[in-house]
Amino acid sequence: MNDVDAGDMLDPDAGIDVSTPSSQPGTIWNDVVGQSHAIGQLRAALDRGAAHAYLFVGPAGCTKFEAARAFAGRIISGSEDRDQRDARLALEGVHPDITEVQRSGASISFDQAREIVRVAAMAPSESSRKVLILDEFHLLNPTGAGLMLKTIEEPPDSTTFIILCEFVPHDLITISSRCTRVDFRAISADVIAARLLTEGIGPVEAQAASKASLGDLDRARLLATDPTLAERRKLFLSIAGQLDGSGTVAMRLAGELLAAIDASADAIKARHENEIAELDARIKEFGERGSGKKQLEDRHKREVRRARTDELRAGLTTMAQTYRDSLTQGTARNIDAAAGAVHAIHDALESLERNPNEKLLLENLLWSLPSAV
């Protein structure tokens, strides 16, 4: 995680990539962090001529969405100057010929897929090309995938798709085979810490947030302003030493962990309140029609849900490390039990993808784990 390519190192003073031209001041790639290989691949793709569809695959917080906006801006403007009018509007997400599609529910619905097909068929309004950025495409409804296959395979000559997903599920294999794939990696802790320094975060906070972020820059930014991060990490580290095999203790500790996770939402809620206040000011001035209020509310719900899941994932990873340390340091009282604990925690981590009941998940897991002391 901490191995850093020279091309990804950020100058803490300048806040830019000091070894490659991909992130020099004023370029569209400034917000794409730790992804010099992907940027090089995208530049090479444009040198060959824009394809009809691109698939960006990588974990949350790897700045692939920022890369999609930058790439769309490059397609529309033909420039890497972020101050050029079309590029600037693309980076701000408001260019009239770039449509960004976010799911409105648990998945991209059939109705949303049908709207994507309709929009894709329309001519650009002011440019020679139009770009559709489809976010979280791994959550596309299977019926929607069938509807969109033909459009993505053979869109109008003026339309380019940029499809973003964290992984390629079975239902999307056919669609993915029609796209030029670009892989994005989780950002190393060192690169995240360096980036946070350029954004005004102190060294201690940047280091702590980068280690707890699991390669997610968005999460790192949130954690860097969270004064309770150290206390939550300490709580998760202490859990294995408090377990005694009883349901009473397991239930009590599960409650403490969930309370800590609830408190961790304060930072993101504060950011949401600022965004709502800014939107309300715009609505007061220009009216609510086309304001995106419903989309903002939906995004806030998704972000709170993701933040909770990320907190739980990070905490469980910390707990697993406690048992791993007991194995590698030879302090485990029962090697098989400690190894079994690591496997049980990994199973719980995988189950988070299925949106389980957090309370029951934690109670059952903690009840099954041995004490690490």
TrEMBL record:
Which GO MF terms does the UniProt record name? Answer: DNA-directed DNA polymerase activity
**CDD domains linked:** AAA
Indicate yes or no for the key word Calcium: no
* Entries under SUPFAM superfamilies matching the protein: P-loop containing nucleoside triphosphate hydrolases (SSF52540)
Keyword Amino-acid biosynthesis part of the UniProt annotation: no
GO annotation, biological process = DNA-templated DNA replication
- Write the record's keywords in alphabetical order, separated by commas: Nucleotidyltransferase, Transferase
Assigned EC number = 2.7.7.7
| Top-level division of the source organism's lineage | Bacteria
Stretch list, region Disordered: 1-24
Record InterPro entries: DNA_Rep/Repair_Clamp_Loader, P-loop_NTPase
Instruction: Return the Gene3D superfamilies for the record.
Output: P-loop containing nucleotide triphosphate hydrolases
Q: What class of enzyme is it?
A: transferase
Q: Where is the composition biased (Acidic residues)?
A: 1-11
UniProt-recorded name of the protein: Putative DNA polymerase III delta' subunit
The species this protein belongs to is Ilumatobacter coccineus (strain NBRC 103263 / KCTC 29153 / YM16-304)
